[in-house]
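dumping this here before i forget
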Amino acid sequence: MVPNRKCAGIGCKLREHIRCSDMPAADVTRLENTMVVRTVTRTEKIFSQGADATGLYCLRSGHALLWHADIFNHKTAFRVVGPGEMMGYRSLFGEDAHAATAQALTACDVCYYPKKVVLQLVDEFPGFARRFFRTLARDRGPRDALLLRGQHIPVRTRLINLLLLMNTDEMCPDDGECVLKLPMLRRDIAALLAARPESIARAIKELGQDGIAIFSGRTVTIPNLDALTVETNSEQLPLKGAVTV
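structure:
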């Protein structure tokens, strides 16, 4: 199998599933031939809550926000999705409508794989199916909204949870300094965390003074990832390669 170079370079989770399933090259090509790459602009919706789940989505570049609206149209954001991550698979395998909306935070290139082909390969290759079972089992889905918007959680901790949810192997290696590029403005962070902008500014200042996370514009430098995670007191928070709905 020869993976798509552009996708392989970003740590694509779907490519990882394919590689670990020992799928023959001919079947990889069958999947590749159905892929459609779409460019979406900032704020554009990639898929909408309530729409039929017609395929699997992977981010090749950019960042997207997942949010859910209740019956009163109150919107709750619960995940920032980055390059290499998959979206829409919960609804795809559940054969149900999308339970959330995916909206571009920045300009994005999105890879789309039709439902029919993905399900055929899942049926044909048990190793491929097992990788998705593992992904589904580890997916926290909208429950992560409590980590980001829970009023009982200090704003400082909510901000740390957001940084951890954005963490990937490429951005934050097991050792050494970690650097994150925020895909949103601070006012957008405040809205995502259900906090006042001044509270976000104060938390950013405190984290910098404590040497835990240093913000400079949209760049965040984390000298020691372990020191950041200690503050969350949440063993269930996915620290690396967080999966998505």
